[in-house]
Amino acid sequence: MLVEFALVQGATEELRDRVRAVLRKSPLSQRAFAEQIGLDATKLSKSLSGTRRFTPSELTRIAEAGNVTVNWLINGSDEIETVAAVPKRSARVGPGSGTSGEAGRYQQILDAAWQLIAERGYHSVRVSDVARVCGTSAATIHYYFPGRDDLLTETLRYSVRLAFDRQVAELHTITDAYQRLLRLVELQLPTPGILRLEWSIWMQIWNESTLRPELRVLHSDSYKRWHDTIARTIREGQHQGVFVETDPEELTMTLTALVDGLGIQVITDRPGRTVDGMHKALQDFVHREIVRS
């Protein structure tokens, strides 16, 4: 059952309370926390007092810094079904898992591994590289991630969680399924920065899954979340009368395949393929094949 949007939009005081809980748990002062997430301290204070709203990107950064999910910030639970399908597994160490220091160290290692693998490639990253970035020992890395392969699988889970957080933050106030689908497409474009890095992780997982059957279940579970998010948006659009009554699973399969194919061409710099061109092609497909004429 999806969370009612009116309830989510009206729950601003509950959201502020949960942000305050994150701040209380943080070892940083409120000003230092704001600086860590790149938010002006005055804006943070105004958002906490209710005189301004948190932006989607701010909610995502707060969740990341606080080691919680955007779903928890907005809805009070990691598992509530909302505008995006909930991942089956989480790379995060939850608030009740070990000490805050352990959770912070785990997240630091995961952040470093994710960045290195995305930028250099899985086979070019050694445990010692991750340890060097974190300013710790290889033994500490192995404490949290027993084998190098664990780093790869957890970076995929982490990418899935990042995408889920971003989607919930960006989409939870968009009640129109057509507008939400267009925004979902935009959030999947391999623009420079974090989205391009996420694409790099996905492409490496696709390659490794081809060669290593043990990764295929993880890949399938992760990809299913993205598929289900698109499918539920299409079903809602059909219920609203704005999308054609074609089988939503077929529409989802075609749209996700188009996203994948164009994304690979863009990120591998195929001549003539650009993010803008990919965006236009996807918008044209939605208008031509999904929107009711």
From TrEMBL:
<keyword id="KW-0805">Transcription regulation</keyword>
<dbReference type="GO" id="GO:0003700">
    <property type="term" value="F:DNA-binding transcription factor activity"/>
</dbReference>
<dbReference type="InterPro" id="IPR010982">
    <property type="entry name" value="Lambda_DNA-bd_dom_sf"/>
</dbReference>
<feature type="DNA-binding region" description="H-T-H motif">
    <location>
        <begin position="126"/>
        <end position="145"/>
    </location>
</feature>
<keyword id="KW-0804">Transcription</keyword>
<dbReference type="InterPro" id="IPR039538">
    <property type="entry name" value="BetI_C"/>
</dbReference>
<dbReference type="Pfam" id="PF13977">
    <property type="entry name" value="TetR_C_6"/>
</dbReference>
<keyword id="KW-0678">Repressor</keyword>
<dbReference type="InterPro" id="IPR009057">
    <property type="entry name" value="Homeodomain-like_sf"/>
</dbReference>
<feature type="domain" description="HTH tetR-type">
    <location>
        <begin position="103"/>
        <end position="163"/>
    </location>
</feature>
<dbReference type="InterPro" id="IPR050109">
    <property type="entry name" value="HTH-type_TetR-like_transc_reg"/>
</dbReference>
<dbReference type="InterPro" id="IPR036271">
    <property type="entry name" value="Tet_transcr_reg_TetR-rel_C_sf"/>
</dbReference>
<keyword id="KW-0238">DNA-binding</keyword>
<dbReference type="InterPro" id="IPR001647">
    <property type="entry name" value="HTH_TetR"/>
</dbReference>
<dbReference type="Pfam" id="PF00440">
    <property type="entry name" value="TetR_N"/>
</dbReference>
<dbReference type="GO" id="GO:0000976">
    <property type="term" value="F:transcription cis-regulatory region binding"/>
</dbReference>
<feature type="domain" description="HTH cro/C1-type">
    <location>
        <begin position="28"/>
        <end position="73"/>
    </location>
</feature>
<dbReference type="InterPro" id="IPR001387">
    <property type="entry name" value="Cro/C1-type_HTH"/>
</dbReference>
<protein>
    <submittedName>
        <fullName>DNA-binding transcriptional regulator, AcrR family</fullName>
    </submittedName>
</protein>
